[in-house]
Amino acid sequence: MPIDDDAPIEITAFDWVPDFAKGQVRDLRVRWALEEVGRPYRVRYLAQGQQKQADHRARQPFGQVPTFQHGDLTLFESGAIVFHIAATWPGLLPADAAGRARALEWMFAALNTVEPPIMDHAVATLFEATEPWSKPRLPAIATRIKERLAEAAARLGPREWFDGDRFTAGDLMMASVLRIVADDGLLDPHPALVAYVERATARPAFRRALADQLAGFTGAPPPGFDAWERRLLAARRALLG
Ligand SMILES: N[C@@H](CCC(=O)N[C@@H](CS)C(=O)NCC(=O)O)C(=O)O
Q1: Which among 147, 140, 148 is positioned nearest to 124, based on CA atoms?
Q2: Separation of alpha carbons 12 and 5, rounded Å
Q3: Is the distance from the beta carbon of residue 51 to the nearest atom of ligand 1 less than 6 Å?
Q4: Helix, strand, coil percentages in the chain from 3-state DSSP, rounded to 5
Q5: 47 DSSP 8-state letter
Q6: What is the bridge-based pairing of β-strands 42-46 and 9-14?
Q7: φ, ψ at 68 (rounded to 5°)
Q8: In the 3-class helix/strand/coil scheme, how is 80-129 assigned residue by residue?
Q9: How far is the CA of 25 from the centre of ligand 1 (A)?
Q10: Beta-bridge partners for 44
């Protein structure tokens, strides 16, 4: 069935997350892409826990956000959603087939090569920071991140964007993934990556997307959250020295 490009767009996002996750929830990538291509959207906000209920699982089988609804099309997976946005409206993909393929290549590189060790780091130093297996895992994770970042920096070289002088959906994903560890100082050995993330996140579309995500956190934490967060953050501090 053809998609009506002008059909309304609705995404899902959380109405509350812990402070450490604010500005990192993956609906930001979708908001950013929509801002880049100039498409308005509305947001269906979920309270914590609602993502696991049947009506949301009908949209997202893994019980997560984001999802994206555009006319009759419902999508999950931020990468697939950003690609759909980039393929539907101009602004995030070059016009030539080779350039489009390379943008897709960088989207996969971000999600499938660079993000996994970065997420392992987040899991070990945050979500599973209190678990006994996290500390022994850290050196191996750190080595893999170091390797990936050095390789990414080597490829970026003096380029403005990964495929040259044009920002694409590939950069949107690479910058989204790299900025996860920017505040931990892991990019600091590579000033080119630091500058790349700064360049990407200075884009007006990113600033609007981030402001809108942050403005959407109007909900309340689940009961018992404070004690849980205090335990996690203390364990994180102990792990990271
Ligand atoms: N690969 C998925 C990952 C989605 C994901 O990890 N979503 C997180 C927020 S960033 C979530 O909904 N977590 C809550 C949960 O798993 O219950 C995507 O890129 O869309």
Answers
A1: 140
A2: 19
A3: yes
A4: 55, 10, 35
A5: -
A6: parallel
A7: -145, 125
A8: HHHHHHHHHCCCCCCCCHHHHHHHHHHHHHHHHHHHHHHHHHHHHHHHCC
A9: 7
A10: 12
What SS3 class is residue 153? helix
For residue 232 and ligand 1, the question of a CB distance below 6 A is answered with no
CA distances from 13 to 37, 64, 66, 148 (A): 20, 9, 6, 30
If you measure from the C-alpha of residue 96 to the centroid of ligand 1, how many angstroms do you get, rounded to a whole number?
A: 32
Q: How far is CA 18 from CA 44, 46, 94, in A?
A: 19, 14, 37
Mean pLDDT (the chain, rounded): 96
Task: Tokens for 87, please give them.
Answer: 């393929």
Cβ-contact 51, 81 below 8 angstroms: no
Residue 156, both tokens = 């970026």
With CA atoms as reference, report the closest residue to 86 among 150, 168, 158.
168
- What is the tens place of the pLDDT at every residue in 202-218? 999 999 999 999 999 99
Q: Is 67 helix (H, G, I), strand (E, B) or coil?
A: strand
pTM above 0.85, yes or no: yes
Q: How far is C-alpha 158 from the geometric centre of its chain's CA atoms?
A: 24
What residues are paired with 70 via a beta bridge? 9, 73
Which parts of the chain are beta strand (E)?
9-14, 42-46, 67-70, 73-76
